[in-house]
Write a structure and sequence with these properties.
It is a single chain. The chain is mainly alpha-helical and 84 residues long. It has five helices and no strands.
Length: 84
């Protein structure tokens, strides 16, 4: 059976488990997300781009300022923190 891989950046950014994996370094999910390291190119590239976006939200040119603000707010709410 073929594995289903996310192939779009927004698929990763809409996944709470992915956000938790990147920002909280949730070790219980390492094996799931590290399969993207050896995934087909599109999936691998989308994974790395989504990681980069989350790690560099303050200087992100991939998203509009409104999209960045919405994503940050969603992340802060998810993590139980207040937006700055």
């Amino acid at each position: 059976m073929k594995k289903h891989y996310y192939t779009q950046v927004d698929e990763f950014l809409c996944d709470d488990d992915f956000i938790r994996y990147v920002l909280d370094r949730d070790t219980s999910m390492v094996s799931r997300w590290e399969t993207y390291i050896t995934a087909p190119y599109r999936a691998h590239h989308a994974f790395l781009t989504a990681c980069d976006i989350l790690m560099h939200l303050d200087d992100c040119s991939f998203l509009s300022s409104e999209e960045t603000a919405r994503l940050k707010e969603r992340i802060f709410l998810f993590l139980g923190k207040k937006s700055r």
